[in-house]
Write a structure and sequence with these properties.
By secondary structure, the protein is of the alpha+beta class. It is 61% helix and 16% strand. It is built from three helices and six strands; from the N terminus they run αααββββββ. The relative contact order is 0.09.
């Protein structure tokens, strides 16, 4: 091989080298871009998973708090008829003047029971004659002719008291409304 041929080969190699370097550089860039995209996808996936887990923790905490608030709901519901019986007994005993000591004893027991239940979150729903009837807050037992025009669509009588446990109504007040 002559010196001229060697120089020619060297020149050709030098011309090809930058082209290969450009190709290799483009390959490196596309590889880097692919890795950046994968990294971004993984970050996004991680953030979504983290957010989902945080929502799960908040939801379970809310559910647990709600469960503690209304854990005694079944017990409270089963004691409401007993409260009603005490109230009926007290109303009946008030008419009998000879049973004053009996009335005091029954009243004392009723107040103790009511106080204990109120400490556990039970509250009475106030409804009185003349209030406007609301189907969301009252349970209508029957409708009767209103004694006066101003009582139409309003509560005439309260048959059974309503109770709430915390913010949740466990028994709606049963009422008679005027037509």
């Amino acid at each position: 091989m002559s010196k001229k041929d060697k120089t020619k080969d060297t020149l050709e190699a030098q011309v090809e080298a930058p082209q290969e370097a450009v190709v290799q550089e483009e390959d490196v860039r596309t590889e880097e871009e692919k890795l950046q995209e994968e990294l971004q996808k993984e970050k996004d996936k991680f953030l979504r998973l983290f957010a989902e887990f945080e929502n799960y923790k908040k939801r379970t905490t809310r559910e647990r708090i709600e469960l503690f608030k209304t854990a005694g709901e079944d017990v409270m519901k089963s004691l409401l008829p007993i409260l009603d019986d005490f109230e009926r007994a007290l109303n009946h005993i008030e008419d009998d003047k000879e049973a004053e000591d009996l009335r005091k004893g029954v009243l004392l027991i009723y107040q103790k029971l009511l106080t204990s239940l109120e400490q556990k979150g039970l509250s009475h729903i106030e409804v009185k004659q003349g209030d406007v009837f609301n189907a969301d807050n009252h349970e209508a037992i029957t409708q009767i002719a209103a004694p006066t025009d101003d009582l139409k669509g309003k509560i005439i009588d309260v048959i059974e008291k309503g109770y709430a446990l915390g913010d949740k109504v466990i028994r709606f007040p049963k009422v008679v409304i005027g037509q």
